[in-house]
Each structure stands twice: as C-alpha cells, then as structure tokens.
C-alpha cells in the first residue's frame, strides 16, 4: 500500500523525546526591549536570514544585529515524527502559511497550493527535509545572467558553480551512515563535498521502506546511470540524497536551531524580535540611493507601528512572497502597480514581484497485483508496529521508520535522454527568445509595458535553452521512497508568474498569480517527461509485480489525451517558489545585483530565494543556506573594508 492509500490517522504515543531544547535567549517581544538602533536589521528569520545573522554576529561581535520575525520560536518536528502514523502526510509541522494562487486558465483553472514557514527558521522548519543541490550548470546560468562583467567581476560576487560551491560545503555538516546501514541499502556518498563545520546537519537514514528498491531497479533497467554522489555539481542520474536531520536524534535540523538556538547564547549582540512584521523600508531624507534606511515595524497582533534605524544596512529575508511585498509597500517596484495601490513611487524597479517560478508536474500512478515487501507504510496502522517504531525513534541513535522523512532517492534526467525530439523543443525556445512581438512570449500583461522585463526574459530563455540542450543538465526529477506513484517534475519552467501586494489587506500574504503552463512549451516538456516516466511500467521489475498504470491510464495514448491529463492533473507547486526579486542587471528587469544590493537603493540588500534569476533543478533548502552563507561573506567583506564600518 502506498502512502497515498494510508489512512490519515494518529496513534497515541508519547511526543518525541529527541526534541532539541530551544534556547530563547535574546528573544524580544516588546518594542521597549529593543535598542534605539542596530548596525544591521534583517527582515525575516528564515533559512537565509538566520544564516546571515549567525555569521554577522560572529564576525562583528561589537556590532548589533536585529532579526525581525513574523512568527514565533517553535520546535519544528520532522515530516514524519511520532505520534503521526500516516507516512507522507504533513503531521505536526511548525506554523506556516498555506497559500492559494489565483486560477491558472491553461490548467483547467486549478490553483497552486504552496506553503511558507511562519516560524523562526522559516521554511526550513516545515519542508520535506530533502537536502539536495542543483547541477553545476544551474548555477553557471545564474552567473551568465549577470551580463558581461569582464574586468569587474570580484570573487565574492561570482555566482557560477565554482563561486557557490564553497558555500554549499560550508553550510552543512554531513554524517555518513554506519557501515552496516550503508551495506544494507547500498548507500554511496563523497564526504569531500561537505565542509562539516556548521550545526546544520544532513545524513542518510538508517531505515527505508521494504519496496524502496522497486523504483531504483526499474530506473536502472531504463538505462539511468547510478551516481555515486550528486552534491558535487554533477547531478545527472540516480542519486541518494541526504535528509536534513540530526545524525543521532533524527530530529529535524533547521535554521532556527543551527543558526539561532545553538549560537545565540554566546552572542549578546544577536537580538531576535518575534511576532512582528516589517511594514516597509523608509528613507527619511527622500533619497533611496544615498539615504540611511529606517525600518517601519508593526506588531502582528495589532497596535501602533514604530521605526528602528539601521546604522549599516537593512537585509530583506522575508522570502519569495514576503520580500516583494515589503518592497512594494516601501514604494519600490513596478510603477503602474504602485500607482494603482496609491503608493508613492520611491524607486522604479518593475522586476519586484515579477519572474515567479516553481517546480510543477503531474504524477504517474500504478497498481500492483502483489507487493511482497516488508515493511510498508500500512504497517503503521498496526498499533504494535507503530509503538515499536516510536520506541526505536527514541533510541540513541534513533532507529526505524520515523528516521525517514519523505524520500532520499530520486532521478534527474536531461532532456536529450528523455525524448528523441528534444532538439525541436530547444529550437522552439530559441525562436521564442528572438520573437519580435512581446505578446508572443506568453508573459504576464504587466510585462508588456516594461522593456527591461522583456529583455531579461529573452536572456533567460537563451540560458534555459542551453540548459535543456545539455546532456548533463537535468530537465526531469522524480523522487521515490515507497508507494505506487512517481512525480514527473519539470525543473526549468518557461512560464512566469507574479506576486502583488494584496490591495484590500496589504499586511496579509500577497496575491500569487502562478500562470502555470501559460507558456505552451512547458506543456511540451510535461508531455515528454510523462511519456518517459511511463516507461517504468514496461520494465521487468514492474512486470514481475503485475503493475498496471492507472494515471494517466493505459487507454491514454494520443497527444491530445495526454495533454488533457496534464492539464487536469499537474501539481502547480512542489513548494519551491523563487525568483521574485531577481539577481540580474537593472536593464534586464533585475532587482538586485551580484552583491545582492537593491538597484538604486542605499544600504538595502535582499538575501533569500527571491534573488534567484532562474529556478535550479533542486529542492531549495540547501540552496537557501548556501545563498545565506555567500551573502554573509559578501556583507562581511564589504563592511570590513569600509572606513565608516
């Protein structure tokens, strides 16, 4: 029985005892507890924001850092922790926003459902704990999209793989599994790809469900190569992926613990202000380029707003949805939209809230005549088995089913390996990049009056065409841990959406218009990916199990039938939104430069997943830590050199 078939129910066992005690030192809840001003103010205590705060307070012990966080200090349980027994559900997660987009006409007016962390630690406290990195070619494309920087590139603003890889290594401590576990599951890894100096942990679990090898075996029969390690930039093939959990307790490892609780006791200069929201950034002298920023703050529970000044700079780390909302409330963004919202224009940056991207795709599903495996998730419905699983989890080190999150195995397959007609798709992308009429680009209407956004999107199309043509750069991802389905995930979408301030309630989450599959080439990619994944049914492994395809279904064969399936079945968000304050030149619709400073604004930076120019072929947690580490390095280097620093 797959996880989608397991009943959603709870078993009454004691709450996990492996929870890490949360150090709440220096947590502030009232304005009266704050200093009059801070050297650095960070808006958002999420994955990247807390990484920056940790590094700044360490590097500058005589400078004060304030993190302003909408949520509260909470312990964040893992995706699958006691007492939850329905594996694959979002059991007792920490607080988060559950957001719906506007309907997507090209996908039968279905909406995207996406979660964002509303807690100290941000989305690292609620994600699926899948801790992978993208391909080297993903990050090389980021650097390419910064434009020609011949003679001006500095090492710390190099966003190619070579420029980012050291920060991936720095950002996590990986612990290899015991030899017996490695031998049992044929785990492979390369410890040289990790730095092992940071209390953000990742490890390979000591437990897998009994049918875990079904997909791995069938994928190998399809000719997919087995990779020894996929964290070194060469991410193509069948990979083992670490889980972001502590190697002993198997508790979730996230930014709220590793970059706050475990370090704040030594840092009197590290202040965390919870249950408050950054309303906007204000330049009192009216000059955003030269002025000193002031942060306007409001209590989440209501009450009067107040301001805090930043002596050095303000860092926006409120996330893909929160950061553009802050900028728009500050009068920084698309002029036409700000005018419609009656917000005075401070800085004309049409890229703010544009360029929204996320991973999407349908799922291929099957039924099997027999599943001769043990254990399967259905065993958790047995009270004795579930109780034993809870006991095993509380051992030292933790053991059993509760040590496995959602998955730790997946394939990443390049488009040339997926379809023989890949060159037709690549050619169509390149023709689109050179199209003379902006309307043919299938972009949001707000792009039509903004030539810089059009120019930036054309540059993205050319970069994406090169990515998809590369036989070592993945186009498709599919994960598996157990069950009777596999997602055909599109890693590099061409469609672009928007994030706009909610005009009727501007301090609530903004309006998300995903516009999924608005670019018809995305449908072509979805169809190619789905056809490829259906080949699993024809492998010897699946035939031996008597597997029968139920979605799309064996009767679905024509292009028209398969397209109808994709339109009604596509999951529009795999919870990896990005790119709404893109790191690109201003003349190409960018919001920040390679030093992450907001174009045209003084002492204002963005550090979160909104700065990505294009979506990498990875779940975003590991990338969020690496971006935070690299940003902290840039900030520390720049302020260490300044005479007024």
TrEMBL record:
SUPFAM superfamilies: FAD-linked reductases, C-terminal domain, FAD/NAD(P)-binding domain. Keywords: FAD, Flavoprotein, Signal. GO terms for biological process: secondary metabolite biosynthetic process. Residues 38-359 form the Glucose-methanol-choline oxidoreductase N-terminal domain. It holds the Pfam family GMC_oxred_C. InterPro entries: FAD/NAD-bd_sf, GMC_OxRdtase, GMC_OxRdtase_N, GMC_OxRtase_C. Its cofactor is FAD. Belongs to the GMC oxidoreductase family. Residues 1-19 form the signal peptide. This is GMC oxidoreductase. Substrate binds at residue 574. GO terms for molecular function: flavin adenine dinucleotide binding; oxidoreductase activity, acting on CH-OH group of donors. The keyword Flavoprotein applies. The active site is at 576 (proton donor), 619 (proton acceptor). Residues 493-628 form the Glucose-methanol-choline oxidoreductase C-terminal domain. The keyword Disulfide bond does not apply. It comes from Parathielavia appendiculata. FAD binds at residues 47-48, 119, 278. It comes from the Eukaryota.
